[in-house]
Amino acid sequence: MRPLEGVFVLDLSTLLPGPMATLMLAEAGAEVVKVERPGRGEEMRTYAPKWGRDSVNFALLNRGKKSIAVDLKDPPERERLRPLVERADVVVEQFRPGVMARLGLSYDEVRKINPRAIYCSITGYGQSGPKRDAAGHDLNFIGDTGLLSLSMGELGHPVVPPALIADIAGGAYPAVMNILLALRDRDRTGSGTHIDVAMSDNLFTFMYWALGNGLAAGEWPGNGTDLVTGGTPRYRLYATADAKMLAAAPIEQKFWEAFCEVVGLPEGLRDDAVDPAATTAAIVERVAEKPAEHWRERFRIADCCCSIVADVEEALCDPHFRARGLFSHVLAGEAGARIAALPVPVANAFRAPPGTEIEAPALGAHNVEYF
């Protein structure tokens, strides 16, 4: 038995943060019912690339859920949700503040029907504050909080981060964590609660070191100036002769000394506190003399926190991740199509057995079951 079996989740969220949060709940055994608009369903169904009738993004994020099609703007249609609200342990919504109130489904309205319901609202800026109604996407949230300023490339060559940090780390993960805390609290009190997940709020946690440097020492970090943002030769990327990248992170002195030996750094440049720029330049020159495979083997032997950057396809083929069973869960599609399910941070002990074929729902596929 999985730990969330018996937990009923009514999911009114779309796109990434909410659906990823409810995916994790579903993987742990919760019954997740996705409420979608009739006709097209949620927007992510239309994204490219398609994988059968819907996008592969939708399929990955909604594996194991059920779908009902309900027009929330139509009062008689909306009233059909009442029995589901009455039995819901968790309600997840991702509209802008005030929208659920206009639909008659605010936390206060839901609480009247079901005082035990845990109601999780996920937004960019939260349910209160001057920015609560502002539109935004991940790039705006990481920009507003200062996170982007720590490593955004050069002015002439700005770099957009490769992950949707706010959506996932600021939205989906905190939503799951707080839903589980609220379920535990309900065991004690018998009452539900309203969880206000503001994606931007939760980004400050990732800048613990930057906040500490600024608040305690008055040393506010800049763009790529500090230890973990490339401001030292001990933590940065170096190009190899065949246009690949060495990810070098020999921070500790014992690792740094081993690193210097491998690249053949002159003794006069090994104290990187003397002239960091000169040390960096010398490493750049030496790493660029040899191809990635040369460095991969040398650093494997040295074992000093250095590796060759893999592309996504290479990472999926990595024997380590394969041995860990990371891609052993199966997403089932139409006409026998099968791909690896999205890896999620839920322990295998709490999920369906690896190899179990689970699909994402067709739009409104479960209306008959619930209405």
Automatic annotation (TrEMBL):
Q: Which GO terms describe its molecular function?
A: alpha-methylacyl-CoA racemase activity
Q: Which UniProt keywords apply?
A: Isomerase
The keyword rRNA-binding belongs to this UniProt entry's keyword annotation: no
Q: Which SUPFAM superfamilies match?
A: CoA-transferase family III (CaiB/BaiF)
Enzyme Commission code(s) on record: 5.1.99.4
Report the Gene3D superfamilies cross-referenced here.
Answer: Crotonobetainyl-coa:carnitine coa-transferase, domain 1, formyl-coa transferase, domain 3
- Designated name of the protein: Alpha-methylacyl-CoA racemase
Organism this protein belongs to: Lutibaculum baratangense AMV1
